[in-house]
Amino acid sequence: MKSLLRTLSVVLLLVAGCFAQVNKSWYFAADYGQWSIPSQFASTYIVQGANVCLQSNGTSLFFPFNTNAPVLISDVTSLLSEVVTASTVVNTSGRCGITATTVNAHNGFYLKSGTAGLQEAINALGSSSAYPQIVYLDTRWYQLAGNIPHTTPAAIIAAAAGNSSVILVDLTTSPTATYDWNGTKYAAISGSTAGAVTPVVAATAGSGTSPTIAAYGSGSSVLVNLTPAATTATGSIFTLAYSRLNGSVMSGTYTSGITATGVAGQNCNLGSLNNSSTATATVVLTGTNTIAGSTPLVITSPGASATAAPTSATASNGTATCSGTATISTSLGATAAWTYAPSCTIQSVGANTPAGSLTVAAAYSSPTTTVTASIGTTALTATTAYQFKVTCQ
Fold first, then answer.
1. How far apart (Å, rounded) are the C-alpha atoms in residues 12 and 212?
2. Is residue 237 domain-resident?
3. Which of 182, 277, 286, 334 is the most buried (most CB within 10 A)?
4. Does residue 176 sit within a domain?
5. Is the CB of residue 263 less than 8 Å from the CB of residue 322?
6. What H or E segment, with its residue span, contains residue 380?
7. Do 237 and 108 belong together in one domain?
8. What is the pLDDT of residues 214-259, one digit of tens each?
9. Does residue 296 sit in the same domain as residue 357?
10. What pLDDT, on the 0 to 100 scale, is given for residue 6?
11. 122/64 Cα distance (integer angstroms)
């Protein structure tokens, strides 16, 4: 089952209520990168005490050390801080930690993640499920990774020791970037004919009234999480609409102009883009009351029929307090999606497998390709979470 997701480039995840109450399949690398263990003895990286090293990601416990997981020795003298690789790992009821060869002597220090939690997340989730898990890289992860000496976020991703059980999705890019394990390293997946077009997902009659379904990501291989409503039926259960998006805002970055009050990770809304009255976006604060130049925009609606690439937008309150006219740089979509009806397949890849047979069909009517997924013989079971993979080429 894990091999079914080897070419995943779009993730559509079930969101219940609000973002703060996400489905348990949302795993953020940053949540595995918050741990910190104080030193007990100079230049000794094994500490005494039961379960001292057991850490929490907010919902579950994990052991952070592994010979494939770089460790940051965060010295009280910052210039002495360094990232090391464990030679051996100790984990007993009375002591835990690592042995490692260091460049510097360390008298007072903290042991922290050398990958901002990425390797710890991969290690913890790699064998936790019958199907691949998704680890998300958000602005919090980039902030943690940016504070690790002598490396970069890109280098951390490139050096990660992965496996086919874990897929990485970078939420800070627009469209999102997806990384799959190629046997040697995590490599960014590029969409096939559909390029980086984000499909619009919609539940149809077979899913009943008011089912839970959401779209996140981009590409020609799509993962759909769907929880049907109380009453279901055979027939069409959802559609994916891929548009050529001519005149639509596909991506962009922030330059300057916003006055923001908030903390890193909160966001500002952007509307009234010049040249496109219907496009909207958000931009994330990179620090307290700060948005760094070149921060990627998250396009929340691409709009249509833009006369030129927008260069300004009006800021309003998101999760942060925001005002001002933002200077932005954007790109318009053109011919990234299909101009024909592609050949598509659908597979059930979640823990719950529907009893009915699944089919999928595509149709093209310029400028949109619509992919319709259906179930026959036996309807979906109400209030049961399903996960489907749709691939088109």
1. 11
2. yes
3. 286
4. no
5. no
6. none
7. no
8. 655 555 667 788 999 888 999 999 998 876 545 677 778 999 999 9
9. no
10. 41
11. 11
Show which of 70, 92, 114 is a domain's final residue: 114
Q: How far apart are CA 188 and CA 298, in angstroms?
A: 19
Range from 126-130, 174-178, 323-327 carrying the lowest mean pLDDT: 126-130
Q: What span, in angstroms and rounded, lies between the C-alpha atoms of 379 and 66?
A: 45
Q: Whole-angstrom Cα distance, residue 197 to residue 221?
A: 11
The amino acid present at 294, given as its one-letter code, is: S
Are 328 and 255 in a shared domain? yes
Which of 268, 245, 247, 244 has the alpha carbon at shortest distance from 256?
Answer: 268
Q: Both tokens of residue 165?
A: 């059980």
**Do 303 and 378 belong to one domain?**
no
- Per the listing, tokens 């300057």 go with 256
Last residue of a domain, one of 332, 350, 375: 332
- Say if 362 falls within a structural domain: yes
Choose between 5 and 306: higher pLDDT: 306
225 shares its domain with 104 = no
- pLDDT tens by residue, 90-117: 999 899 999 999 999 999 999 999 999 9
Q: Are 12 and 216 in contact (CB under 8 A)?
A: yes
190: its two tokens: 């590029």
Question: What is the per-residue pLDDT for 165?
Answer: 83
Same domain, 253 and 328: yes
Nearest-angstrom CA–CA distance, 14 and 29: 19
Domain that includes residue 354, residue range: 200-244+337-392
pLDDT the model gives residue 190: 46
Nearest alpha-carbon partner for 290 in 136, 138, 143: 143
Which residues partner with 281 through β-bridges?
Answer: 270, 299
Residue ranges of alpha helices (H) inside the chain are 118-125, 139-146, 153-159
Read off the amino acid at residue 88: T
- DSSP per-residue letters across 136-163: EE-HHHHHHHHTSTT--HHHHHHH----
| Domain count of the fold of the chain | 3
Specify whether the CB–CB gap between 73 and 102 falls below 8 A.
yes
10-52 tens-digit pLDDT: 333 333 333 333 334 579 999 999 999 999 999 999 999 878 9
pLDDT of 366 higher than 70: no
The answer for 195, left when phi > 0, alpha when psi is -120 to 50, beta otherwise, is: left
Q: How confident is the model at residue 177 (pLDDT cuts 50, 70, 90)?
A: confident
| Type and span of the H or E element at 265 | none
pLDDT for 101 equals 96
Residues 236 and 304 in one domain: no
| Within a domain: 64 | yes
